[in-house]
Design a protein that fits this description.
The complex is a heterodimer.
Chain A (H helix, E strand, L loop, with lengths): L1 H11 L1 H22 L1 H4 L7 H38 L2 H9 L4 H41 L13 H28 L2 H10 L8 H23 L7 H32 L1 H4 L4 H13 L2 H35 L4 E11 L2 E5 L3 H7 L8 E12 L4 H5 L13 H6 L4 E3 H11 L10 E6 L2 H11 L5 E3 L2 E5 L5 E2 L13 E4 L13 E12 L4 H19 L8 E9 H54 L4 H38 L8 H29 L5
Parallel strand pairs in A: 4-9, 5-7, 5-8
Antiparallel strand pairs in A: 1-2, 1-10, 1-11, 3-10, 5-9, 6-7
Helix pairs in contact in A: 1-6, 2-4, 2-6, 2-7, 2-20, 4-7, 4-20, 5-8, 6-7, 9-10, 9-21, 10-12, 10-13, 12-21, 13-20, 13-21, 13-22, 20-21, 20-22, 21-22
Chain B lengths: L3 E11 L4 E12 L4 E5 L6 H8 L7 E6 L2 E2 L5 H11 E4 L11 H10 L5 H14 L15 H13 L5 E5 L7 H17 L4 E5 L2 H4 L4 E6 L2 E7 L5 H22 L1
Parallel strand pairs in B: 3-8, 3-9, 6-7, 7-8
Antiparallel strand pairs in B: 1-2, 1-4, 4-5, 9-10
Helix pairs in contact in B: 3-4, 3-5, 4-5, 5-6
The chains are: A alpha/beta, B alpha/beta.
Family (chain A): Belongs to the ABC-4 integral membrane protein family.
Main location (chain A): membrane
Organism (chain A): Ruminococcus flavefaciens
Chain lengths: 692, 254
């Protein structure tokens, strides 16, 4: 019997429940999909590095899942409370008919269980389906082989989803039982009437509050958007609190303010259904100030999270192209320890290879092999003088950094390397030197020195700076190359035999591209090259007091780590973004749809007055649209200024334009939030449709 | 030529096995400038009849002509246009927009007919004066008394200068003082501004303000009396007489 009533109740209030149910399904599905990534990727063939990345990713996701579950839980509690309020009259009827509060609670329990079980089942079904697509996405992202892939259902993710959502539903059941046990018949019966009272605000007060909030908000924007150098954690928190409070008061006053503005233009206000439409919007906004604020802030967070994630991802991809223009880079150095100090010794990759009867050049189609030198007498502190103190803070011990010898390379080597990298070559006169660096604080110091003539002495030759600027660039490619400085000098002043003049060979460098035409071949060759390298470098005959250092980095390795980071941020960003957007959309949709149910008599009246169907549809569209647009607009504004701060922070680590990531963010927001808008619009339209 | 002409109007509810004839073959004419009251007990079909005239409901058979237009044949947009331009409604429960002020409620009827803001202002102020509601124009419905609300609703009904004003139990939710005030205003509009009014009521006091009363029983016209040159009091007594006859019939059946 109870079950029968529950079922018919659900069927009857399907209009109210549809969005709720739909949201639950999305929540369950998203929760499952992200938590199933581990199982989904178990059958993909990929290398150990990437496998490790995925392990890290799944750990991060399960951490975020707790947070996501809390957000979804709050949403579910809010939605169920909201739906229960709408049924006060129904409960009153049950009580009048003599149903006990226990019975009503049992009825609600029954309903929650039906909806919960239904949403879990459908959500998991959809989740399992979509997670197969997710596997393909992951495989594509991590360039994994899907040939062994088969349809996967993650039992652990199912258990986790059921457990988390089960807890949420239990909370809902306890809450509703509690509410029922406390309510009184008379308040239930009068609840319908009470809600009809409309809160009307003085429009002039609204104007003043709105302007004040806008001023406060502008100040907060200024703090994070332009005054970034003076920011500290306290100030950021102040700005956030100011922003949040101002957001609340803007929603408190915006309807009244807009109404006042529109009313003052009589021609607009008294045109068609405008007066009705704007009053509807203002009454809706005025009764949802708190929710609107929360939604706006959540949208703000979503936009920031998503765009940051996409910016990092975009930057990672671009950095590979920009900062790793060759397949393979390696250096090899030898040092001798004399009285506790290390001195570089002559080193040659070729020598080591030939000892094993090998040649490193075999696998390379184009390459350059060169030496980097030191001048025993030429250290950083000699070069930059007192400016060394400016580096305090960048290096743990800037004094020892000052003692380190500066690396030097021949002009011909530099130009050959740049040609290999596809970058600009330079020209030097016989008595000139150039400096190539990328680390900003150092570049600043160098540029200051170069604003004047700055002579240096190398191997007994006096050289002058060739221009007033440092050449911005790197010698060793990395995802984020940090080059503190490489001196480029004319070939003529370097003679490897002149060791007595202080010339030391710092390292032997080899950079090149493989003899390969496609990706598969590249991977194969790389394996061979690295194998050979390990073979040679790992078996060098040791000498007493001599240290060896060797280093390799390849484009594939760099790409691997970049893929890991970008996948991590993308997944987490999308996960949080999805859940937030769905929550925002669901709250607004529930509110708007229930408003439509309440407003049905108003539309009936409009029809009796002879209003065209088309105008009613237009009015509903405007109402829904503005209701959804208001928090989004403010959130976009918040995000714009928030991202100014973000950009300030990110600029140091990311490259690439912000346009594409912003576009992706907008696409995700429009897709989900816009989807909820459309659902709500069509839902409202069908609710207020003429009943015949 | 009469303004409104009903020809054998019928309205049935239900299906073949249980048919309710809410309106059973009713015909009458209403002249321009007439104040007609339709009286009858609950369930006599008077509201259904009014709904048919106002095109809210469709007739099962018969025709209703308003100035040569057969309104039973109107559809969709034409129907909306007809309601908008030719009719004015007054309902028992006022049906004002609770989110709009009195002024805006009245203005809404004009703005959906695309009047300019200037014309709207003028028309609203004039009609407010006629119905004595100038001082409540800036108030919301919840700040007004029932009588004031009903006069605002009446103002909205007549502000567009409709051919026909239809009132469904306009005094049903009002106290006697407010009822009297409203009815006096309606008859003022009828006399001074030549408004044609059809009012459905079961209250003989309300009906006595009309110039003509049609009695309906079980979906059929039972009787019809004209006020002629009678005073309202005399007319009221006549109505009571007819009602006694009507009621006697009912008690016979019991």
């Amino acid at each position: 019997m109870l079950f029968k009533i529950s079922m018919s109740n659900i069927r009857k209030s399907m209009k109210d429940y549809a969005i709720y149910f739909f949201t639950l399904i999305i929540g369950v599905a998203v929760f499952y999909i992200f938590n199933a990534i581990e199982s989904q990727t178990a059958f993909l063939n990929m290398n150990e590095d990437r496998r490790e990345m995925i392990r890290f990713l799944t750990t991060a996701i399960s951490g975020v899942s707790v947070f996501v579950a809390i957000v979804l839980g709050l949403l579910i509690v809010y939605a169920s409370r909201f739906l229960m309020k709408r049924r006060n009259k129904e409960f009153a009827l049950y009580m009048m008919l003599g149903m006990s509060k226990w019975k009503i609670s049992a009825l609600l329990l029954c309903e929650t269980v039906i909806i919960g079980a239904g949403s879990l089942f459908v959500g998991l079904l959809i989740g399992v389906g979509l997670s197969q697509i997710m596997s393909a996405v992951v495989a594509n992202l991590f360039e994994a082989d899907m040939s062994n892939y088969r349809f996967t259902v993650s039992a652990s993710a199912i258990v986790k989803t059921v457990l988390y959502f089960g807890i949420m539903y239990v909370v809902v059941i306890i809450r509703s039982g509690f509410v029922i046990s406390r309510c009184r018949l008379i308040t239930l019966m009068n609840s319908g009437k009470r809600s009809e009272k409309i809160t009307m605000k003085n429009t002039w007060v609204c104007m003043i509050v709105f302007i004040l909030s806008a001023v406060v908000l502008s100040y907060a924007y200024y703090m994070v958007g332009w005054n970034q150098w003076n920011l500290n954690t306290d100030k950021i928190i102040t700005a956030i609190i100011m922003g949040a409070v101002a957001t609340f008061f803007i929603f408190w006053s915006v309807a009244g303010m807009l109404l006042r503005v529109i009313m003052s233009v009589k021609g607009v206000y008294h045109k068609g259904l405008n007066s009705f439409t704007f009053r509807q919007i203002s009454s809706k906004v005025n009764t949802t100030v708190a929710s609107m604020t929360v939604i706006c802030l959540m949208l703000f967070l979503t936009i920031c999270t998503l765009s940051t994630a996409f910016i990092i991802r975009n930057s990672m991809n671009e950095q590979i192209e920009k900062n790793f223009p060759i397949d393979f880079f390696a250096d090899y150095g030898k040092t001798e320890t004399i009285d506790g100090d290390e001195y570089p010794l002559y080193s040659s990759i070729d020598d080591e290879y030939s000892q094993k009867g090998l040649d490193i050049r075999d696998e390379f189609s184009e390459y350059h092999n060169f030496h980097v030198y030191y001048d025993r007498e030429f250290t950083l502190s000699i070069f930059i003088g007192d400016a060394i103190n400016d580096l305090n803070g960048y290096f743990e011990s800037f004094e020892s950094a000052g003692k380190s010898m500066e690396p030097i390379m021949k002009l011909s080597d530099y130009n050959a390397l740049m040609k290999l990298y596809g970058k600009k070559t330079i020209e030097l006169k016989e008595n000139e030197y150039a400096l190539c660096a990328s680390f900003e604080p150092m570049v600043d110091i160098y540029d200051r020195l170069f604003s004047d003539k700055h002579e240096i002495t190398l191997f007994g030759n006096t050289l002058a700076n060739h221009s007033h600027h440092t050449i911005k660039g790197y010698i060793a490619p990395k995802i984020q190359p940090i080059n503190t400085g490489m001196f480029i000098v004319p070939d003529s002043i370097i003679d490897e035999a002149k060791e007595d003049e202080g010339l030391l060979v710092a390292a032997d460098v080899f950079a090149g591209n493989y003899k390969s035409s496609d990706k598969k071949e590249t991977e194969k060759i790389e394996k061979e090259v690295l194998e050979k390298w390990k073979n040679v470098m790992g078996n060098i005959m040791g000498e007493e007091n001599v240290g060896y250092s060797y280093y390799t980095n390849t484009r594939i390795e760099a790409a691997n780590s970049a893929v890991g980071v970008s996948a991590l941020v993308t997944f987490l960003g999308l996960y949080i973004g999805f859940v937030f957007l769905v929550s925002c959309g669901a709250i607004l949709a529930l509110k708007e749809l229930s408003e439509s149910v309440d407003s049905m008599p108003r539309y009936t009246m409009l029809r009796k007055l002879g209003v065209e169907e088309k105008d009613i549809t237009k009015s509903i569209f405007l109402q829904t649209g503005i209701f959804f647009l208001l928090p989004l607009l403010l959130a976009c504004l918040h995000s714009y200024f928030g991202m100014r701060l973000g950009k300030f922070g990110l600029d140091m680590v990311v490259v690439g334009s912000f346009t594409k990531p912003m576009f992706f963010t907008a696409a995700v927001v429009v897709l989900i939030y816009g989807g909820y808008f459309l659902l709500t619009f069509f839902g409202s339209k069908s609710i207020v449709k003429e009943q015949k | 030529m009469s303004l409104l002409k009903l020809e054998n109007v019928e309205k049935y509810y239900g299906n073949k096995s249980s048919l309710t004839k809410a309106v059973d073959n009713i015909s009458f004419d209403v002249e321009k400038g007439e104040f007609t009251a339709i009286m009858g007990a609950s369930g006599s079909g008077k509201t259904t009849l009014l709904n048919c005239i106002s095109t809210i409901d469709r007739v099962t058979a018969g025709h209703i002509y308003l100035e040569d237009t057969d309104i039973t044949k109107l559809k969709g947009k034409e129907l909306n246009k007809f309601r908008r331009e030719k009719l004015g409604f007054i309902f028992q429960d006022f049906n004002l927009m609770d989110t709009l002020t009195a002024y805006e409620n009245i203005a809404l009827a004009l703005s959906i007919q695309k009047y300019s803001a200037k014309d709207i202002d003028k028309a609203v102020k004039t009609v407010a004066q006629q119905l004595d509601i100038t001082e409540v124009l800036s108030k919301y419905p919840y700040q007004m008394s029932g009588g004031q609300k009903q006069r605002v609703a009446s103002a909205r009904a007549i502000v567009t200068n409709p051919k026909l004003v239809l009132a469904d139990e306009p005094t049903g939710a009002l106290d006697s003082k407010s009822s009297k005030l409203l009815l006096e205003r309606l008859s003022f509009l009828n006399h001074e501004h030549d408004a044609t009014i059809i009012m459905v009521t079961h209250d003989s006091f309300s009906a006595s303000y009309a110039s003509r009363v049609i009695f309906i029983k079980d979906g059929k016209v039972f009787n019809e009396i004209n006020r002629g040159a009678d005073t309202r009091k005399v007319f009221f007594n006549k109505i009571i007489d007819v009602l006694t006859l009507l009621g006697g019939d009912v008690s016979d059946a019991l």
